[in-house]
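User: If you would, consider this record:
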Amino acid sequence: MEFTSKEQYSFSTCWNIRRHESGDRMIEEIRSLGFSRVELNYNVTREMLQTIEPLIERGEIGISSVHNTFPHIADPDYGTDSVLLGFEDKERRSRAVELLLQSAEYAHRYGAEAVVVHPGEVPFDRDIDHQLKEIYSTQGRESAAYQRLWAEMIERREALSDGYIQRIMSSLDDVCEQSERRGYKVKFGIETRSRCNQMPTLEEARTLISGLKGAPVGLWYDIGHGMMMGRMGLYDNVNEANAMIEDIVGVHIHETIGLSDHWCPYVHSGDMEGFDSFLDIIAQAPVKVYELKAACAPADIELSHQMLVSKIARRSGGRIARTVGGE
């Protein structure tokens, strides 16, 4: 099968990182799909970078973004699902700031435009998100069991979220100040998450971005995660995301089937219209990254991309025609 060049788009290493021990072979597989840029995700190790960095230096691959924490560290306290920038403990929060600055240093060194940031979460003593998703799948969102547990989750989330937001904002302010002092030319994109107790909601993202006005902080809009949280009832995903289009520094492109994410848009869901709600966001986003699961086959990735870019082109062409006609 022939794969088209996808110059405006990047591709996350999350797709094939578990298939490779060698970083250069991982990158070569992505290049074979027609991508000339990649996002290095948080599972990329220092050992992998030893064979990836020569490709970057020779200009054989471009880096659009890196995903904090980067490179990979095994400590779950600073993994993707932790309190991170919102830690109450000052030493742990300071360590999280240092790790984000390390990610920014790598991004700057590789010529990347942005760092993808998981800011934190409101912690629970159990995996309440998993419990809610099980009820959602077996009994539905409108069931009494779901509504009871959802109300419990929301009560704790709303009671504690302000404190976490303020700590996250302080951490990001510190990161931006030090990043500017060190001369790093990267933006920090706070990512919409896939669990209902994680931060930020789109409203929380707006609060953080407004509170850090002038800083290189914006929204990293993960489309599939937004779809999941919209379906679960955390926020009005389509309307709120499109209202924040000017604040978006990057997107993760993937579709959600029910509450299962990282599928190829249009192809796996069979829904030829639902994903259209995000086309304006994708078109305008400075950094566009496919973030797909390993189950997505190369042929499906190609077909999905062709459908997406064709839809965006038709949408843009229609606007141009209406503008000319109006003149």
User: Anything to note?
Assistant: The chain has a mean pLDDT of 96. The two ends are 44 Å apart (CA to CA). Residues 105 and 184 are 7 Å apart (CA to CA).
